[in-house]
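Bench log. Compound arrived from synthesis this morning; before running ITC I wanted a structural hypothesis for how flavin mononucleotide sits in the protein. Inputs:
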Amino acid sequence: MEKFKTTADLETFRRKITSVRPAPKISITISVNSSCCILRGSKTVAAAFKDELESQGLNGKIEVLHTGCLGFCEIEPVVIIQPANILYGKVSRKDVKEIVARTVKNGEVLERLLYKDPVSGEKIRGKGNIPFYQKQMRHILGRNEVIDPRSIDDYIKAGGYSALTRTLDGIAPTELVNMIKESGLRGRGGGGFPVGLKWISCRDAPCDDGIRYVICNADEGDPGAYMDRSILEGNPHSVIEGMIIASFGIGAGEGWVYVRAEYPLAVEHLNIALSQALNYGLLGENILGSGHSFSINVARGAGAFVCGESTALMASLEGKVGRPRSKYVHTVEKGLFDRPSSLNNVETFANVSLILEKGVEGYREIGTEGSKGTKIFSLVGKINNTGLVEVPMGITLREIIYDIGGGIPGGKRFKAVQTGGPSGGCIPERLLDLSVDFDALKEAGSIMGSGGMIVMDEDTCMVDVARYFMNFLKGESCGKCVPCREGTRRMSEILERICLGGGEMEDLEVLEDVCEYLPDTALCALGATAANPVLSTLKYFRNEYTEHIKQKFCRAGVCKTLFRYEIDKDLCTGCTLCSMQCPVNAISGERKKAHIISADVCSRCGICYESCRFGAVKIIQTGAAV
Amino acid sequence: MAVKARPSGSVMVVGAGIAGIQSALDLANSGFKVYLVEHSPSIGGTMTQLDKTFPTNDCAMCIVSPKLVECSRHHNIEVLTYSDVKEVSGEAGNFSITVNKKARSIDPDKCTGCGTCMMTCPVTNRLQIQEIFEEDAIEEIEETERIINQYGGKRQSLITILQDVNEKFGYLPEGALRSISTHLELPLAEVYGTVCFYKAFSLEPVGKHLIKVCMGTACHVRGAGRILEELERYLGIPSGQTTEDRLFTLDTVNCLGACALGPIVSVDGDFHGNMSLLRTAKLVDEYAKRK
Ligand SMILES: Cc1cc2nc3c(=O)[nH]c(=O)nc-3n(C[C@H](O)[C@H](O)[C@H](O)COP(=O)(O)O)c2cc1C
Ligand code: FES
């Protein structure tokens, strides 16, 4: 393939590939190219389709598209058959033969593979009718559905790189950065800093040798969030396009993408996409004849949460230990190798081309006053429809959790939703009508963060959640500043003690004291926000703390020393399943008679609780602390 | 223990960090003769490396530096730096202690600490003792050198080089680290420091199968902790260790990015989603059977 020399070349090419291939009669879309689909066996399904189409003589007559993540991870791998508009979920290799023979050939619908709504129990046929998709606004993720992430032509066919040609053709760099500022786009990586302002300060920062950097933060350290992975795996070119546009606005010649080590597939797709873009002349010297040159390097992270922080990330890119520095001088003035550097999140870059396509006014129509556009959340935890959801800012939590997420599985009660990862907080049921935007979440004691949204039900212990986050932060604190290093350690010790039943009421005061000092004294945002998980649980779930301390009881059955299991005589059918599974032989009883758990032997591993099909294993207060 | 009628009036404080210094000063001010022994060439310890102190946020140097000066000026304190305690005998009240004073190769009475010699010394950041390598370390070193050359031996490639070496051997052998230190002209301590900082690196060889349990939030609320405990119980090792037959290494990871399918266990890079306690032991057995 020849390099495109001008923007017109690219547009001609786009017209060519869209007109050459007439839309085939039938197309099959399979979500294959994403880690979570692969986990669910998408590769074998795709291979089975290939074999099956061949053996039934349909080769070449049907277009098969291997896309990245379609967002609805609960029913992955997904197969969509068009134009009949049929969506099959949880497809396995065994189903393929029937799908090809009946649905593809004869247009029959296979009831059993259709999506079943967990609320109404109804079978739903098309993607558009599934409640999970209905309330979403999939501007960014939607493009995953029509693209094979390994094919740049697919991206161009879907309108990709048109924002770039538009920019290079008629928008001056200063005008561009002002447009981004006007659009109200705020960083999606956690801080919510206005992107336009960042670009302008980086552009205007003095620099002797004129070298500036554009860096993409794909470290995604927030546990429980995977939006960035899905974008990089499913549509890497959208990030590259955003970065090229940013470099044009800022006047940067070199770019970096810092990807988490745990995302090998994202790195692979990104590298493929980069070499394709280079071959097409979209990267490198004199891009599309504009005179602007830009190249992108990929760096793999090495498993440190704090490396998501801007200064730590840059230190890590320089090959050093990823410890943050204090920001008397901002990274837009002196960042990577002491040059002006602009760091943005993956999703932020994916938004850039959208702004140029929709125009500033069009983009501003979505969202609230202070937060514009859409945001992708990873809706996970105790929720029926787990997956990635993209919603306009300002939607309520209730809509996300109940309308899109389909509520809590197993008829359990909702307890809290955790947003913002280790820097965020837990939001209780009574605040479910909170509008989801940067400012409202902050006011509620949490943050928007990068988009993790973890739903918790009655089986989740809130003290344990606080302990979990503090333990995480203790481990990830880089140790450079004392408030964070010692503060997280002490809080972790106290919370650990409470979970073991050795807590005292004064402990809560100490926790609050430390939480008060941390934000003002810590060096970087990791320490400054470390108090949020504790403060928010103390604020909304104080009763659970007092229960742990005074009654030595963990109602959720999580803190092992603060409860015991007991078998309800009336519910137990004597099926012996639990006694067979018990690893420590703590359960005795005859077949068809009620069983008994010996509390002394029981290690509270929870296997019986999990395996009992009759709900006969109950969580009981012991009262005695250990 | 019989205490002698007249205990000798001197005290030895071992370790001249902030705690040692303060003890020495308090004792000296109460009239005891104090010997302050310190392993490193200067007193002050960790506190001199800190910026602020918790929780009052006071400047660390402002607290410690007057004490350093006081210590060296106090008539009752004798500072023995660059020295190690070799042997202690006797009993409470009357000890005899042998102290090994290491060679400074510089006359301490004349040295003013001006720093000129340090700056002019042509050998910087080099290992002071070259270790003699075992025969089988040679392959490690050759491979490491190949990787270093591939990245042009630049300092900024340190992490990338470490990643590749770690991938190659499954861990970072000592020979490799020493070779990296020499070629990139970095102190070995800095290379080690970097290795210890990042979770992706291992200093010990891993077993044939690497089991990683996701401890991310989404997996945590779905019971990842119990899965880990069950694995620890079944394999008989705590997280972070390798079984005796070197078949399995058990480790945790903060999030694998497939949170919708939690709890997740990855074995040799293959993800196993929606894990339950019942399936855990079976999963291990399955891999144990693979040769
Ligand atoms: C401890 C810590 C971890 C962070 N982790 C990430 C991360 O994983 N991904 C990310 O995009 N931003 C992360 N950030 C935020 C970045 O520092 C930075 O604000 C962001 O990448 C800027 O991009 P944006 O303006 O597009 O949001 C983290 C910040 C802190 C303090
Ligand atoms: S929390 Fe386990 S994969 Fe993300």
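What the model suggests: Residues A 223-224; B 214, 216-219, 255-259, 262, 264 surround FE2/S2 (inorganic) cluster (ligand 2) (CB under 6 Å). Chain A is about 40% helix and 15% strand.
ITC booked for Thursday regardless.
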